[in-house]
Amino acid sequence: MTSSISTNSSTKETSTGLMAKLSGLRNLHVVIGILLLATFYVSVCNLAFAEGSALHVSDYTVSLFGKYLCYALLALAVDLVWGYCGILSLGHGAFFTLGGYAMGMYLMRQIGDRGVYGNPDLPDFMVFLNWTEMPWYWAGSDSVLWMVAMVFIGPGILAYVFGMLAFRSRVSGVYLSIMTQAVTYALMLAFFRNEMGFGGNNGLTDFKEIMGFSLQSPSTKLGLFIITALVLAVAYVVCHYIVNSKMGRVVTAIRDAENRVRFVGYKPEDYKVWIYVVSAMIAGLAGALYVPQVGIINPGEFSPLNSIEMVIWVAVGGRNSLYGALIGAIVVSYAKTRFTAIMPEAWLFALGGLFVLVTLLLPKGIAGMLPGIMDKLKGKNAPEEEATASEPSATDNSATENKGSEVKS
Amino acid sequence: MIVDKTGTPITETENIQPDTRHGVILYVEDVSVSFDGFKALNDMNLYINDGELRCLIGANGAGKTTLMDVITGKTRPDTGKVSFGQQVDLLQLDEAEIANAGIGRKFQKPTVFEQLSVFENIELSLKGNKGIWASLFHKLNGEQNDRIAEILHTINLIQERNYPAGRLSHGQKQWLEIGMLLAAKPRVLLVDEPVAGMTGQETERTAELLTSLAGEHSVVVVEHDMAFVRSIARTVTVLHQGSVLAEGTMSEIQSNPEVIQVYLGEEQG
Amino acid sequence: MLRINALRMITMRLIVLRLAIVLLSVFVCTHTYAQDNTNQTDSSLALSNIAKQLPKAKLSKMPPLVKQLGAIKDPKSRLILESLLEGELYYERSGFAIVRAQMNDDKKYVLSYLLTDAQQQTVSKSKIKKIRTNNRLRGQIRDVLAKLDLTDPDSSVRIEALKQLIDKPNDSAIQTIKELLAEEKDEDVNHLMQVILQVQLLKTGDDQQKLAAVEILKTSLEPAVKNMLTQQLAVLPKKPTDQQQIVLKKAITDALDTIESKRQFYGVVENIFFGLSLGSVLLLAAIGLAITFGVMGVINMAHGEMIMLGAYTTYVVQLIWPHLIEYSLFIAIPLAFLVSGSVGIIIERCVIRFLKGRPLETLLATFGISLILQQLVRTVFSPLNRQVAAPEWMSGSLQINPVFSLTYNRLYIIIFSLMVFFALLTFFKKSSLGLHVRAVSQNREMARALSIKSDWVDAITFGLGSGIAGVAGVVLSQLTNVGPNLGQAYIIDSFLVVVFGGVGNLWGTLVAAMSLGSINKFLEPITGSVLANIIVLVGLVLFIQKRPKGLFPQKGRSAD
């Protein structure tokens, strides 16, 4: 193996970087292709086949898939900071929920006078609390543009402020993880209070319509599902670009040897804040897409357990690989749906067991096993790999394989 | 505030030009550092001339690594002044800014980015804008590609260019780190124990390389291997208990009674 | 083994403390009995003499009899008087024995003999006749009873009687107090008597007397004093012209200010006390975490569940030995230590040791374990909260002065957590195992080279940290409900304590826990507990800016 690399690289020196990129691109096309095909398939089956047909996909299932795609988007965000930058955020639920609240506020205003109290100006819960006017931060919440902006700005500002404070003072490792968890915990406590003006315990719910489309109608549900899939595809491309740019390499370097990066002249804290903010915004976006599909947002979403579940999606799927995050989110969420339906008490046992097993036995997740499986399928000998070398070496291997075939042709 | 020769403030640290009209590029004056009462550096005074090759020797705990930590911004001294040329106060800059200003460092324990390839390690170290947006939209140009190839050639890692750096041998990692230093085109190179773990042949090549670098760069080498020091040294500084004990050519040092006493004392103890 | 000894020592000390209290009360009781015995023959003679007269006495002849009864220092005479006051004093038509008669549900009367030890018996109304009283007589009886209380040998009875009087003083009681004041040796009782007299003077005296009373009363924190002062201030004209009134008004205002500032002072002291008790709980919860984090560099996210297991151990102990509630904590503390400690060792051996050098993975794995443990408890004990009983000796409070008291449970918790702290400190300083643990925490490689079995040290450390968490659980079971989520509430707080205090220094943990507890308690009344939590959190994030390694960082090159 070793000799083949060196002979190849000596024969055609400059092609390797290019080839790695090409293989990355192919990878990108495959993921996006599968995603779009699946979306198309679900949509067609939902519309074209009547209920009762074997091929019919029910409206409920469409919504469920929509929810999974939101989770996948969220997992992408977690993977970006954890897999690539080594920041184990146990508080990404905070960004997700903030994005969700931004959307929820907008949907709340869309209810208009159709609420229980029929007040055209105030959402129900404010009437219930005997408030006479809307708090200042609700101003503008009836505009779509404002909502879209807040979906990014809310989580972005939180991530920026926290990141500046934490990364500047070089808080890292478990310290940082617990701090992020403490932040989402504090937010949960705060949002539970009625005085916060976000509906307290009950959160925001009873939504009627989004941009004039009824949230109850199947076509809106399908539309939301398709939009989520498209947003996920775009986000995937963006993340793919980031991790394959020089930026991505700096970030990986920070993950492996932060101090060394400093002495090369990069400011790790700036990079960390940047990637943290980007990740937070993606998480916020996921939350915003999630809320109209499930019809409610409440402070329970801030719960630290939720944030940790996101981490386990990425761990199961394989961190340091973007498609791994998608796989993990969907597989674990699907398992959760099945488990909680069949035996609800067992879910926490299963989840807990998953944490332990994945960290002990599967540090690279499903994505880490894929290259080996593919090789076996192709009938080739699995490349000898050190236990420590992970994703980059894996792409490296595939790159050399591709190159081998190219040389032959 | 950092100003350039004409007195205008410099915002980008990579544009810093140290003022070396007096021939000195690095001033370390009256610097003291203590850890929990232990004085790692004790009123240290050290001047490195522009373009010279200087060897620092001294027993363990003499303050060699702490001195490098202070110069590169890793440790803040309790008192004293450190400046790059006459006008650039290094104590106001952080590690990244100091690196960008033109002071490169090779660590005692070779630290490279193990998950990245050898090529990428060099790429990241290239002199240039190290900001976020620049990195995000960065494309290697032909000149930079050539430069990387040239460095890979110099450090003899052409064949391993696509290896993850973690798979290199100890000696190769030392070389890669030197290569990363070269890529940054620093004015001053601080090299901590460059030949530890190298074979005799590799050591010889390292000596050659470091000697050839002097002149264009100022090189400060910390080394325990006295044969190696003798082979490259022009001026040697002996550190003892956090301050400079003696300074001079190798033969002057070897005949210095204080140095002999300290070293013999060490051996007897 | 040393740690078990340390715990046993703590338990012993508590037992000794209890024993001392019990002995003291026994002593007080026997003391009073001894006094009674000397007068017994005299008093019983006098009593039976009066008792003979009572049935035949006319109302007009009653007052001297009551007076005589009051002069007899005997519980029986007191009982007679009380029965008379409540209209339950009768005599049997046959034999004229005086009895206390209480009507039962069948409209029959239950008789208790007041002078003889004869059995109770139930009779119809026709067998007995009531001894009559009127309002004036009842007033006299009350005075006599008050005087009896005020001369009671037990000072706490006297204080209680005086406290009754301070709110509703009457002339005859004041008179009695005046008579008794000179002979009163007990300082507290004496002080209280003075206060009552002065309050009375303040109410009824002339301006000169009032002024003198104010001077004395400004040192008293009794609520009645404050009320009376406020009342007097209100009585005075708004802009007094009389010179004396001006002086008086100023004196009263000053006195009120003095009292108010004292009350505020004690309010602060009380807050500190609450803060320290919260801090002690935090200390107990966090110190195990600090140890494992300091030595192994890993965060055990299941630490909260170790606390929970300790709390459930207490619950189970009380379930198995319901008749031993008083001693349940002494059983539960070592047991909880063992239960949580062994679970900790199992976790370390089965999971954590395979994740060496990967702290973030350890965090995730232990989080998984915490989920499993929570669900396990839910399955075994139900998801509902369980009530753990508090032993008698944990309830009640220590009254320092009228506005400030220390509740015993908080007091014991503070003492206990400090004992645990110092026991740990001694363990780390003095024992060879402690030395090994410290060596591993400072430089694992070097310790290994010195043939310290770092694996073994890890397991013991983890067991120790978890065991202490279990002990913390026992303590927490006395303060809150025991439920599956008990631990989760404390893991973040505990971690903040560790962050604040710095790693690898137990003193840091102590200071951090106590200050975080106090800060919380001082903020709470101002901002509410949720906001207080948030403020503390934000404050801590900012603190880390200045001191990334906590209050007491380990310095030196090896630290990073």
UniProtKB/TrEMBL annotation, chain B:
CDD domains: ABC_Mj1267_LivG_branched (cd03219). Residues 26-266 form the ABC transporter domain. It comes from the Bacteria. The keyword Nucleus does not apply. GO terms for molecular function: ATP binding. Keywords: ATP-binding, Nucleotide-binding, Transport. The keyword ATP-binding applies. Pfam families: ABC_tran (PF00005), BCA_ABC_TP_C (PF12399). Signal peptide: none annotated. This is Urea ABC transporter ATP-binding protein UrtD. It comes from Paraglaciecola algarum. The gene is urtD.
